[in-house]
Amino acid sequence: MGSEFWKGKRVLVTGADGFIGSHLTEKLIQLGASVSVLVRGTSVIGTGRHNFARIPERVTSRLKQIVCCDIASADTVNLVVETDPQIIFHLAAVAYVPFSFNHPLEVMAVNVIGTLHVLEAAKRIDGLKRMVCTSSSEVYGTALTKQIDETHPLNPTSPYAASKVAADRYCYSYHMTYGLPVSIVRPFNTYGPRHTYDVIPKFIRLALRDNPITIYGAGGQTRDFMYVEDTVEAFLVMGSHADAIGRTINFGTGREISVLDVAHLIRDISGSQSEIVHIDSRVAEVDRLCCQPTLASNLFGWDTKVDINQGLARNISWARDNS
Fold this sequence. Notes:
Layout: E1 10-14, H1 19-30, E2 34-40, H2 57-60, E3 65-69, H3 75-83, E4 87-90, H4 97-102, H5 104-123, E5 130-134, H6 159-178, E6 182-187, E7 190-191, H7 199-208, E8 213-216, E9 222-223, E10 226-227, H8 228-240, E11 248-251, E12 257-258, H9 259-270, E13 276-279, H10 294-300, H11 308-321
């Protein structure tokens, strides 16, 4: 689906103040969409510092509407309806896995109840063409096969992952029960500029300061790391392609790399003198995650364009300029 599709489309992005959401919002604005955003009430758009990414100020001036709210509050339903979108991208979530270890109820409220609020709103919006729901590769747990396709069992190993399973399946159920035009994205580990938590930004921050890079356990756990530009393209496909309705699709590179190898790559690319230090393994650790992206390729011709070396080089360059 070409860029012409998005011109003038009324789009709502929930979680637009998050990492992927901010990049998706920026891209939609570039493509000529009329974009409203739903962000946390604690967000300071375009200014200030926070644990999570912000929408760049060059984007905020072109937004149709900015709605600040607590997505876990029932008020969200009316607020979403009032934005009158044709397409909803639902990304709002508590996405930091370790946070869920000590705050499972808060994570459930945002990720599950918040998703239900958006789904309930979607039922009331006349002319809604698509609701794209954000799931996660974490729903699968440790891979039981070399690559994970959409038929892999859902074996969440953390409260975060369990919340994403629940939200994922609620979205599917609203398609089946109410005929909502839902499509579900299961992106594998995404990294890139403006990401401020998770393993790659953490390693980059430490490397640029020549501080020790700490790794949980031996570092043999593997992930399928996808650069944010490729992830954004996945969302755009799921929001525009007719064959995405009612489907749950994995998006990833199809290549896994160990956390230890990522640490070495970041150290080498950045020219860091950081020592690599191993600490105790983390609870609820997923040992292997690697995407099988065949369905996305067959249905949409989608593929990643940025490999891990290019992506890390871009990310490190951005981090240097914005530290």
